[in-house]
Amino acid sequence: MTLAYTEITHNKIKSWLMLAFFVIFVMAMGFILSEAYNPGGGIPGLAIAGIIAIIWSLISYFAGNKIALTISGAKKVERRDNPTLYNVVENLSIASGVPAPKIYIIESPAMNAFATGRDPEHGAIAVTRGLLDRLEKAELEGVLAHELSHLGNYDTRLMMVVTALAGMVMIMTDLVWRIHFFGGGGSNNKNSDKARLVVLILAVILIIFGPLFATLIKLAISRRRESLADASAALLTRYPEGLAQALEKISGDSQTLTTASKGTAHLYICNPFKAGAWSKWFSTHPPIEERIKALRGMNFLDAAPKSVVI
Question: Is the pTM of this model over 0.85?
């Protein structure tokens, strides 16, 4: 059986290593594409890529939560609207040391939930009506602990940045593609140079495969943070079975969450879109069977309590 603390530590390390690799990839891509279009322009291109990455990340950082809540059709509720839900969230917040988030309900019979916000102080949790109606209290606590852990672990902030980086890759490749084919391309007086030829080949490869590679990295980080939130929720409630049972019910739900989109799918506790076994690499979440198995294999022996916040 795996200690919950060990699972959390491994997930944190792997997530940040993938993020560091992603940032290096984006910067290198900016350098190569700039050098291919304009020989000698690699360093300025690198700087421009960095500036765009920062601006794009800031936009996602400050506006991402509002966009996600609006797209999902989530409506804010007060304590008087659902005191039971409020009490569960507040108790978990006190136990975890994370500020109580704003609470939203999505009027859908489907079962799902997500958290958003750039930090715990600006956090929000949205749950569907179907989730509230069909889960037992221990199961609901497991789901809310999972979402609260996303806020406490700063997963929502991390995924905003990662999504912005992936979007930047799409923009860069599309821009270079359009400039090259519709704008005449850059200087070609060095086409005979071998180094130039290598750069051009790398640029073509990045234009074709860069967006795919960026998407795979984003999804890999998303899957890792879902596993981290599962482990953190188990640590918070000390009852992994509650979340495991909730995941079984949610994954077996036949209702469709019509307000979900590809841009917000990674936020939800379970992928709102049904996917076949072949699409494991392109899923925003780890296979549900693996998550349930990991939860049921956790214990808390021989380890002192630790904060779930990074």
Answer: no
